[in-house]
Structures are given as structure tokens and as C-alpha cells.
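Can't attach files on this board, so I'm pasting raw text. These are the components:
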Amino acid sequence: MMTTSAQRPQPLPTPSYSIPSAILPSFPSYLSPLSSLHPALSSSSSLSSSSSSSSCLQTTGLLSGLQFIFPRASRPLLCTPSFSGLPPILPQLQLPNLHAVRVQINAAVSRGLRFESARWLAYRRNYLSITINVVFDIPLSALPTPQPSSSPLLPRSRQTVDNHNFSIVLDLRNGTQRVVKVKFFAVTVVAEDEVNGRPVDLIQHTSKRDQGPRRKPVVARIRPTLSDGRLAATPISHPASLGTHRLLEDFIPMDRPASAGSSSNNIPRGSSTSPDFTTSLDSEHEQPPSFDSHHETAEVVCFERIQFKRATANNGRKNTAQQMFRVVAILYAAVDETECFDGVVSNAEHGANGIRYLEIQRVATGGIMVRGRSPGHYADRVGGGGMIQ
DNA sequence: TGCGACACAAAAGT
DNA sequence: CACTTTTGTGTCGC
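---
Top answer:
C-alpha cells for the assembled complex are below.
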């Protein structure tokens, strides 16, 4: 019999909160006027409506002339840190007319992080949701078949990349280049040590959590949206405000059909499908990453039930180096394997069915402290749960 | 201090 | 509103 001490604790107290200007870059999604006005978001029908992430979007305010949304004061902060680009960026994406394509990966940790004591904080055992969409910034005039009626303000009316042929320029070891046609685009999410870049495993659960298998997040197809050369001028909506392909509601059929997902049915998910996994699954053991080969490609992909496999080192230890992890979103161009021979200089992953995934670009969060034990283990420390260095 | 397993109970979904 | 499912986290034994 559990005692009262075992009862679910109240959310960690959040003292009167004001956004320090130093951390404003951590809130790009919620600073976006578009996201705060988007009906899908303002009606709390964004992804992960199942939890506190929706209640994260409760209160609006005004700062520096921009409308923004921040969590209600009674809860710990659960909004997303910003993702930023990491050099180098390879290879170059282009249109058939050789027009270069500027790529923006739009990512958010839409669930599972708190901002406490001026740092992002996660608990190893708690779920993260990571949402990604991709924008290709191309002037319509550069497209072979311009559609002037499309509006960048209305995601659903955006034309898609489907009818355009993209290619990438691959650098070869002999110093020459080769142009390869892109079959489709895909994204995945990984994690790494903030300092040395060493990989940190992420794992993904089914809704059965401990009773189900775990695996690394898949490489999921995505359909980038097009921006008419206005990327710099127009803030991009939070990915959650668009139709989302939720990965994975239940990533293998278990005791119910995958289509019977638990997500709120008021989520716009016109492009959602159940992912198709080709690798066999061995419960009780981790699985390697696989490739989501579903044909109907979503503009927004959400990786749900993600956890860090391990915690950061030296959490709360004084006079030790506090390890920090970061979450990385990666965009791949899928090309035919026969187009890639050994001379290609690029990060590549082998997929199924003769596909090879060439990394186009990646974005990453700043450092995230990952605690390995329950919040209660840290609550009696200085800062009411927040580690003070 | 972290990890895996087990467990309870609140939140969220139906 | 009742029931079920999902998920945060307390506890235990290493």
C-alpha cells in the first residue's frame, strides 16, 4: 500500500515567471505570430493534445512587439528549445534549372522538456515528442510550374514538392561532382553529447511502454513545404499547427489496429498514415532504426514516446563537469543506391529497397540536462528541484 | 548517482 | 459521468 508520499506529486512549483531576454531564442515557435494565431494551435488541437503540451499554450502576452504564448504559471515550463543549424551543410540541394534551394528544418520538442534554473531539463523516463517539418525556400519564379495563387500564410494551400524534380550535388573523392535525382525526402531524430558530439541513444516506446518493444526512431518520409522566398520575412508556424504524421501511435500492430490511435480526433491529420515497418521486431530488445516507407507523405512528422536511453553524467554534483545532451533533427534526401558509389563524400545511411539516405542538413537544440531518477529525488535540493551549479 | 523493473494513481481519452 | 488507457513518477534492489 502506497503512502501519501507515493501519491502523484503536484507539479513542481514555478515561481513567478518572466522570460529572461537571454533565453528568448529558445522559444521561436511560441514567439511566432503565425503559430499563436493558427486556429489549430489556438484551439489546443495541436499534436500531443493528450498532455501538458496542450496546456502549455494557455496564456498569451506581448513582448518586444511580438505576440507570444507561454505556459500557464502553475506548471513547469514545457515549451521547446530552439533548434539551430550545424555546419557543415551538405550536399547542395537544387532544382533542375540549377537554382539552389535553401532548406529550413523546423523542429520542436513539443513535449517532455522543462525550463528550470536557466537550463533545459528532461527526465530519462519521461516521454519526449519531437515534431519536424521542412521548408524549401524557393521563389515561385524559380519553379518550373509556378502557382501564384498559393499563399505562404495558409499551410494547406501551399504547393508541395511532389511535382518538382530536386537533385543534389554530390562531392566525389576525386574532386569532381555528380548531380543525383532525389526520390523523396526523409527525417529522423537522434541525440548526442553536446560537447563531443558522441551519439546518445534515443529509444521509442509503444503505448504499452514497458510491456512493449523499444526501438530507435525511424527515418520517416516527409514532404517539404515550399516557401516563396519569404522564409526570412515570415515566421514559420510551429510544426504542431500543421497536419501531423504522428510517429508512432503504435508502431507495430499489437492488440489493436494502428488506426485506432489514441490521439484527439480534432487534430488536422489529412496526410497522416500508419507507418509501414519492414524490419522484424523482437520484443524485449532494442531494434535498429528502420525506414518508414509509407507512400502518403506527411508535411509534418511527430516522433512520440521518445526517451533518452541514459541520463547525463554528474547531475547536481558540485565541482564536476555537468554533461549535457542535445536533440538533433536530420533531413535526408533519398536517392537510388545505384547513384551512390564509393566515391561519394557524404553522410549516408542504407535503407531498404535500394534506397540510400544522404544527409542534407541537421539542426540541434542546445544542451539538455537529463535526470535519471524521479523528480522527487531532486526536489529537496537547492532551487526546489532545479540544480544549481 | 543511474538503471531496470514494478507499481500506483492522476491525467487524458472514450 | 463511468470506464479505460496513457503516462509521470515513487520505490526497490543492484
